[in-house]
Structures are given as C-alpha cells and as structure tokens.
Amino acid sequence: MRGVRQPLPDLTIRQLEYLVAVAEEPTWALAAQRVGVSPSALSQGLAELERRVDVPLFEAQGRRRVLRRSAMPMLDHARRTIALTRDLMDWSDRVREARVGRVRVGMIDVAAVLHCTAVIATFRRDRPDVDLTLSVAPSAKLLDDLRNGELDLVVCVEPPEPRAGLEVEELLRESLAVMAPPGTIIGAPATWGPWLTFPAGSHTRELILTALTRRGAPAVIAAESHQPDVLAQMVRLGLGWTVLPTAVPTGGPEPIVVGPEIVERVLVLARRAGTLRDPAVTELEHRLQTGVGQPLTASSPSPSNTR
C-alpha cells in the first residue's frame, strides 16, 4: 500500500508575485507599489508564504530584510509559476474572445537584422492575422523577459549556465573576427587594439576577451556598446578595434579591415518549458528552426515595421 502523500501547501499566485517583486525591486516600498498593495500587506503576505512553505526565506541585512541565497529555488519556482499562469490566462482569453494568434519574439540585434530577417518577413507576409511583436535587446534581458512571461520565443547568444524553467536549442554558429579601422595593417596580436566591445556582463564579451588573451593581444577597452553596428561605425571613425560576427557588413567608401577569425559563438532558440503555447508561436518556432540564415528575397516584405 502506497503511503499517503502530504497535502500541498496552499500557496497563492499573489504571494508568489510578492516574492518576485521584493527580489527585483531595491526596496520593499517599491515592491509593494509594483504589486499594488501597502507595505504592511506585502509583509503579511510574505510572512504567510514563509509559514506555508515552512522554510525561512528572508534574513536581516542591517535594517533591511533580504531574500536568503538558500531561497533561490523558491524564487525560480515563483517566476516559472507566474509566467505559466500568464500563459494560461492569455490562452483562455484568446479562446473566450476568439482572438487571432499572438507571438512575442525577442532577438539580439544581429539576429533581427541579419540571420532571422527572411523568417520574420515571410511569417508576417503569410500570417497577417497574427499579432507579432519583435523586441531587440541584449541576451540577458531577453532571457529574463522570457522567463518572466513577457516574451514567447527568444533568439540570443547561448547562456553560459542553464536557466531554470527555460529550454534552449542551437540555431546556428557564427564566427567572430578581428576588425580594424580603414587602412590598418593587422600585424602581431601584441599590436592590436584598443578595443570597442560589448558591455561588462555580456557573454560575447567574455568569449572575445578570453580569445584575445590566448592570442597575446592586450585587452584594453576604449568604449562599449550593445549594438554591433555602433561598434562597427566607431571602428570606421578610427576610435579603436573590435571583434564582431563576420556577417556584420564591413564595406562602404572606407571599408573596415577584417582580420583573423578568433572565436565562435552559438546562437540559440529559447522558450519556456512546459507552457501552453499559441499555435502561431509553434509555427514561428518551426520556421526559425528551419529557415534561419536564409537570405531576404525581393518578394519578402521588410520587417522594419514589425511592432
């Protein structure tokens, strides 16, 4: 005879929203404002959550109460549950109101303007009934928005560590090459730089700096930008060197000098695990899996007006 399972604690979505808010806002007052309750109601709700899971979630840090490091699994669970609940409510709204499909996709800029342009353009042409929104941002923000239920699909640089509640699959690999100002003669690595590169915290930046160090190139940073086209333009102006995907345009009246390829990065397609999904999301996902990297044809509409 199987043992009787302990009843699950009666947690509420509201309590989980409180937990996420205090983890992401700098003060409890701002967290309370974010979820639309008083600070005392927020505190009472979190105390009840702590009581129901029967595990201490907070600790004192000076005069503040902060989330314990040991409570991170609870925070991950809260984020996943909130995102999945939003998916469920979106699905129920569409069924009840017979609304058209909706897809919220996020991409890093090189994916949006180079690798995935044809896929997005043909999807818009073939499915004008679908409410398609495209957000362009750095990988870390896109993955956070995906996890929090604000995006349905993301194309980004492969994260260095697995993200709880997310699934990723490889879409393509792209080589990154040294790029120098017009007229530069690329000599020994010890003479390369200074560098125009991605901001601190970027996975691509870490790949680049590691590759430069291995080659003996000094890693002197002159400027930063999340946007490859901005970095390329600064190189054209002679402000420094960079390392960018070889797919980034380098021509023009004063072409950038392209040097050796020094590192490879993986672009992935990310989605939330175990969610109710709009069929339009599944369709775009399949198109990305099979069509990334295809050229934009003359018959394909430009994706520039995608909301």
From TrEMBL:
**Which PROSITE patterns does the UniProt entry name for this protein?**
HTH_LYSR
Q: List keywords of the entry alphabetically.
A: DNA-binding, Transcription, Transcription regulation
- Provide the HTH lysR-type domain boundaries: 11-68
Stretches the record annotates as Disordered: 288-307
Q: Does the keyword Transcription apply?
A: yes
CDD domains registered for this protein in UniProt:
PBP2_LTTR_substrate
A Gene Ontology term for the protein's cellular component: cytosol
Under the GO molecular function aspect, what terms does this record hold? DNA binding; DNA-binding transcription factor activity
List the Pfam families. HTH_1, LysR_substrate
Tell me which InterPro entries the record gives.
Answer: HTH-type_LysR_regulators, LysR_HTH_N, LysR_subst-bd, WH-like_DNA-bd_sf, WH_DNA-bd_sf
Where does the UniProt annotation place the signal sequence?
A: none
Polar residues: compositionally biased ranges: 296-307
Q: Which family does it belong to?
A: Belongs to the LysR transcriptional regulatory family.
**Know the name of this protein?**
Unannotated protein
What lineage, starting at the top, does this entry show? unclassified sequences, metagenomes, ecological metagenomes
